[in-house]
Amino acid sequence: MTVDRLLPTPEAHDLLDLTRELATRELAGKVDDFEARGEFPREVLRTLGRSGLLGLPYPEESGGAGQPYEVYVQVLELLAGTWLGIAEAVSVHTLSCLPVAFFGTEEQRKMLPDMLGGEMLGAFALSEPQGGSDAASLTTRAVLSGDHFVVNGTKAWITHGGQADFYNLFCRTGGPGPKGISCMLADAATPGLLPQQPERLMGLRSSAPAQIVLEEARVPRDRLVGAEGEGFAIAMKALDAGRLGIAACAVGLAQGALDHAVGYAREREQFGRPIGRFQGLGFMLADMGTQISAARALLLNAARLKDAGRPFSTEAAKAKLFATDVAMRVTTDAVQVLGGSGYVSDHPVERWFREAKVLQIVEGTNQIQRMVIARSLLG
Ligand code: CAA
Sign of torsion, CA 76 80 82 84? Predict the structure, then answer.
């Protein structure tokens, strides 16, 4: 189904057309295979990088495409409608470039063209086995020794773990709490930076996260991003933007599921007519479509606030919360519309249903989003 979109420029129209074309040509024929094998699609990401899709919201002078978030999130949405693993990979990579782009030294920023062009894939290593939602409690320790930080600890649930070329490592360089955390940029080849086996996931198997064990890993001192102790604020700023990406993934996934369900409800006949003509199913489809439109409106509002340089954390949290809950409901209902056929892997709704769940968890569980929203209400 074509979504009627108000885009800010003719260039944005061209970009969305290009994304649709890439989704059809490069993603649609590969997704089932990669998901079934649990294989990470590095080459597909390189192709997207060469097409300019891995640095969309960054300035052109840094090697990005200079697009507003309003447009970037709609590109993600289109990718997610075909292959969530790819859309999530683009979103996490884009998030991983943010610390260097906005807080990096001049020397560090020289890496940006390769990062934003997709030659170097990024990862964001904040979470730990004992510190997921409570990010400020992280215990990975970095101790300065001469010209290097020596890092010890374990990072968990790291998207692109073992695949990335660079890691944003959030480590404790000072005392307890958020002010003791610093951000550093570590090369994948850093001795002592040891990716573990990928997790075995319910869905999103082509982009499985992995733990990263750090054993006396030596990160050059000049790879500190921002000031010492500024790491937590950098992580939160990156996640504010990242949550828009996850919301976009959710809207795209839900739209894909609705489109498939509508197609099925038009074709499938029972009791002598297409099942969509029964009010029970027609109303279900109507509710799915309405929820998706509402989620997209919240997302675009938050993205436009960010583009305007206005505070947007709370609106990003609302968009992430609402859109991912909508994706869960809509994919559940899509399975129901297809009945038994929805529960077998012949149709993608079975995969989308499994994939939607993870969006309610990553980049801040939906309970964390509610915490952010409640704090902004209560002060
Ligand atoms: N922007 C800038 N600064 C922020 C901020 C934001 N959005 N949110 C908080 N801060 C600052 C605060 O202002 C405060 O600084 P001051 O004392 O100078 O004012 C400092 O950070 C501490 O803030 P809080 O007291 O609010 O911190 P908290 O410990 O109560 O936690 C939280 C707040 C929102 C719950 C935060 O811990 C959080 O977002 N948790 C979820 C973490 C998360 O999303 N993890 C998933 C990571 S994704 C991943 O790792 C996988 C992957 O591959 C991408």
Answer: positive
Is residue 228 part of the annotated active site? The answer reads no
The rounded Å distance from CA 234 to ligand 1 centre is: 9
- The response to whether residue 367 sits with its C-beta less than 6 Å from ligand 1 reads no
**Which residue has the CA at smallest separation from atom 3 of ligand 1?**
233
| Residue 345, amino acid | S
Amino acid at 363: E
Q: Which residues contact 232 (CB under 8 A, 6 or more apart)?
A: 135, 136, 170, 178, 179, 181
Q: How far is CA 148 from the centre of its chain?
A: 31
Task: Give me the tens of pLDDT residue by residue for the chain, a chain 379 residues long.
Answer: 789 999 999 999 999 999 999 999 999 999 999 999 999 999 999 999 999 999 999 999 999 999 999 999 999 999 999 999 999 999 999 999 999 999 999 999 999 999 999 899 999 999 999 989 999 999 999 999 999 999 999 999 999 999 999 999 999 999 999 999 999 999 999 999 999 999 999 999 999 999 999 999 999 999 999 999 999 999 999 999 999 999 999 999 999 999 999 999 999 999 999 999 999 999 999 999 999 999 999 999 999 999 999 999 999 999 999 999 999 999 999 999 999 999 999 899 999 999 999 999 999 999 999 999 999 999 8
Strands 166-172, 269-270: pairing is unpaired
Q: For ligand 1, atom 7, which residue shows the shortest CA distance?
A: 236
Q: Is the pTM of this model over 0.90?
A: yes
Residue 281: CB within 6 Å of ligand 1? no
Q: Is 92 in the pocket of ligand 1 (CB under 6 A)?
A: yes
Evaluate: CB of 236 within 6 angstroms of ligand 1. yes
| Mutational test site, ligand 1, from 102, 127, 133, 236, max ligand atoms within 8 Å of CB | 236
